[in-house]
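General statements about sequence and structure are easier to judge against a single worked case. No coordinates are needed to read the tokens, only the vocabulary itself. The sequence in question and its structure tokens are set out directly beneath this paragraph.
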Amino acid sequence: MDITVINEEKNATFVIFLIMPTFKNLLAILFLIVPVSLFAQSGPSQKYEYRAVWLTTIKNLDWPSTKVLCEPDIQKQKDELSGMLDSLARLNINTVFLQTRLRGDVIYPSQYEPFSAVLTGRVGAAPGYDPLAFAVEECHKRGMQLHAWLVTLPLGNRMHVKSLGRKSLPASRPSLCRMHKGDWFMEPGEPATADYLCRIVAEIVSKYNVDGIHLDYIRYPDRPSSYADTHLYRKYGKGKSLADWRRGNITRLVRSLYEQVKSIKPWVRVSVAPLGKHDNLSSYSSYGWNARNTVFQDAQAWMREGIVDALFPMLYFRGNDFYPFVRDWAEQSYGRHLAPGIGVYRLLPEEGNWEIKEIERQLTTSRSAGAQGSVMFRARHLLTSAAGASELYKRVYADKALVPPMNWCASSVPAQPDSFSAERHGDFLTLSWSSVRPANSEPAVKYNLYVSRSYPVNTADPRNIVAVALTDTVFVWEGSTLDAMHWAVVPVNAYGVEGAPAFWSEQGFVPEYYRKQFYLPEPATWGMRVVVRNAVGNKLYECGYSQTIGVRGLPKGVYTLEVLSRNGDVLLRYPFTR
């Protein structure tokens, strides 16, 4: 067997050809393309990454900067948020964590908790529109996800709780609350706390088209050595140590909220922001400040159990307080998504006066460690930092990226569009394609669009991404670079799983899949084997699942490529010609 390795500069890939000596085996030549990024240390742009940001509403830190006092102020608040989202979209941000529940108050009309004063200056006063519904719509217009960020257990200090009056949780549900060092908290050791929080989450997930629920501060208060929960421990401890009992309480909350979300809309992502260091490492100490033992977040166990879809640990440190710990998180992710929270606010003189190079090292090192992107804290610091944070972000994340798919939740992939056409009108190209029906009760299928000067369009290369999460089946391309362009439209379901693309080029619609090679959806637990059959259904070749498979060795004819499950069921079927 001869093996030839060719470096293709356009897609930065290695192509390995397997040359079989007999004509019979020649019919079944397949080659595998391995991305160079697998071997790179810092790595080029990845197709699947969280490019996320925390957008804070408490104390009007990020938004809104003005309050609704009269009707024209409504549009001012809307315009300000739309402008921020425009700026974030230009940085290729694909996920916004919008602070939706602050400290027992919210930014949407709720039957459980009052409107926050950040919107109008008055607790409980409606701003004249629904900020959460507006934010969801505006993010989706820009191809961005909106995750409702909930501050889970803290309820605020005495002054804040007093301002909420009878609507505050300590007033309406005192058995769920505890005062600790001048601040009110929901009690994680009280079983009814999970029930109440589940109602909050169910209200949001049922009423709004959010893409995720993001849980912040789902932990015990900082350094809780004096936290007065002895009576609950005696009642519910059942022989466990105090630390194990407290960890179990937080885990029970996470599990309950995860199951609540998935029972309503299984495609909605559930994520948590734990402390930045999970535990002491063998060579590096957390210096008494870690998630597992300080505030009782057994976060890596949550990933192992599968009761979170993603973790975004708040790693607002540098040096050996960052790098070994982000690698530890990535190594213990158990197939779930992991991306560090990056403290871009540390660039400010009063917050640490970090050099911009430190943020760059953290972004690139996290990628090489296996993290799926990053979350920047916080939006206004990313957009307005005098230290050049936005310029750095645009340089490191120069290409668009898709939000990583939840393959462990998805049971199917979208079908391939069965038509794709284009019309030229001067410097405009109007692309249109047939819609794809969603599976079961899932939301409408969206579409990712790719373009390239080479054919077939490599949909595995993020440099070819033009637009993501399109809800319409028409797209207008404007510019002078219309000639010799090849296009691919790929359906994507609510879990982020892409289906088979349809193609349009100068020859028109290409109904079959690739003539020379296949770019299959990202490998998933349900995709186990690939089979190539001839026109009469005889199996010519079978191999393990890979995203990229070539069929150049086949003679002219009609064939079918099938993706099989572990049980041998056909999950995807692509007819093609040679």
